[in-house]
Design brief:
Strand content: 15-25%
Radius of gyration: 22 Å
Distance between the termini: 27 Å
Length: 451
């Protein structure tokens, strides 16, 4: 293993121990708060989680020096890194603007013209550097990125992700119909050839952190032959897959016209081998019962993007229903359909959207704790990475955030009577990147605001 230097000059092979409060999610518990704990990290992985009363014994057993023990204050805690299951890196110049149109008009008028600019590799490098830096500062340790249709620009995105030390899936977008002539692929053959070249390029980087993901934009921009070819390519290389499904009613009706003979939108992807346990489908606002069953059987994950769904007036996704039906669900920012690059924004809006739905019926709403799980372990499950990341189980990789609710300039107000649980709740509802002091990916410190 290469010995990677982190921000303080030590290597990720050194045993580090953090003592204090940990908070994470498990399958049984959406938010588990562990006070007075010691978590040991070596080689990028979690070696142990124990009570602080066992610390001296652990130090002797693992030959840990006092210099490698980091003691958290009462205002600090560690949580797993946030997982963004769906965002469009080339749309970052549009974050926070042009959100007055519905989805399909928004794509034609603003999104496609912006993405077309990524034929300029210098432009791409500048935007992608800002995008990845922003996402990391917001605490997203793992992201599933849509690139543009441009092969070289998407290679640049992969390079920047690797340079910054983020864990990511990166995809070159495929699209050749129902999109502007200035921004589309010319043939299925070219689409498949460039996508395979991109897959091989990412694999040549030989990084366990950066992986390729086959990315048909969505069914309306990809004829059946192209979808079939991409499904075959993903199977050949055992790749992840990402696209959009049932985002708006207009889109769903359009797919019905474009693909006669299929029962529903989800079946378009299923019959072209694009629904797999390594597939992420964004939105899924309007899944009917048959589609829910199909998504569940295939093992496909859902990227819930509440900010985008509201901003583009696409609709309100009943996430509680999807979870109760046994679907894997994580959170996405969907920048720039969503105006915020922070999964904390998605976490909060997921709760509020669910409460709004529940207020008109007798159904239960998503709790803050459940949304926390979606932002961490749920996202890891959707991206088929829960065996490696998502919580603080032993032998998982240490993707983590060091949070301080009393950091300088923080938007969180803390009072002497606040409990640990209340401090965590205040961060999840009110905190932002100013509260995130350090970001770790596979044990490597990739953001450090303490220095």
């Amino acid at each position: 293993m290469d010995r990677i230097m982190n921000g303080n000059g030590s290597t990720v092979d050194d045993m580090k121990v953090f003592t204090g409060t940990l908070v994470h999610a498990t399958k049984e518990n959406p938010m588990l708060i562990l006070e007075n704990r010691a978590i040991g990290v070596c080689g990028g992985k979690i070696e142990f989680v124990a009570t602080t009363s066992d610390l001296e014994t652990l130090k002797r057993k693992h030959n840990i020096s006092d210099d490698n023990v980091i003691v958290l204050s009462s205002s600090q805690f560690l949580m797993p890194g946030l997982v963004d299951t769906h965002l469009h890196a080339p749309q970052f110049p549009n974050n926070g603007i042009h959100l007055d149109l519905p989805l399909l008009e928004w794509l034609q008028n603003f999104t496609f013209p912006t993405e077309a600019k990524f034929s300029d590799e210098m432009f791409a490098r500048g935007v992608y550097a800002k995008a990845v830096d922003r996402v990391l500062r917001c605490g997203t340790t793992t992201a599933s990125y849509f690139g543009s249709k441009h092969l070289e620009a998407t290679k640049i995105l992969s390079d920047i992700v690797l340079e910054r030390g983020q864990r990511a899936l990166v995809g070159k977008v495929n699209m050749m119909v129902n999109c502007p002539d200035y921004y589309k692929e010319l043939s299925v053959e070219d689409s498949v050839k460039e996508t395979e070249e991109f897959i091989l390029y990412v694999r040549s980087l030989e990084s366990p952190l950066v992986q390729p993901i086959v990315t048909p934009r969505f069914a309306p921009t990809c004829p059946r032959e192209q979808l079939q070819s991409l499904g075959q390519l993903a199977a050949k290389h055992e790749c992840h897959i990402q696209s959009h499904l049932c985002e708006s009613q207009a889109e769903k009706a359009w797919v019905k016209e474009l693909f006669p003979g299929t029962r529903n939108y989800a079946e378009v992807y299923d019959c072209t081998r694009l629904l797999t346990e390594k597939t992420v489908m964004a939105h899924c606002v309007y899944l009917d019962d048959e589609e829910v069953a199909l998504v569940r059987r295939s093992g496909t994950g859902v990227a819930h993007c509440p900010n985008s769904n509201l901003s583009l007036r696409s609709g309100i996704c009943n996430v509680k229903r999807l979870l109760e039906e046994g679907l894997k669900v994580g959170l996405g920012t969907d920048c720039s359909g969503g105006f915020s690059a922070s999964i904390l924004d998605s976490l909060r809006l997921a709760v509020l959207v669910s409460k709004a739905l529940a207020s008109t019926s007798d159904s239960k709403h998503l709790t803050l704790e459940e949304s926390f799980r979606l932002a961490t372990l749920g996202g890891a499950e959707v991206l088929h990475m829960s065996d490696r990341i998502g919580n603080f189980e032993i032998q998982k990789e240490f993707d983590a955030l060091l949070i301080d609710v009393e950091a300088k300039g923080t938007p969180v107000d803390i009072f002497p009577e606040d409990t640990t649980e209340e401090k965590i709740q205040k961060f999840l509802y009110n905190g932002d990147d100013r509260n995130i002091l350090q970001v770790f990916v596979a044990g490597r410190k990739v953001v450090d605001k303490v220095q």
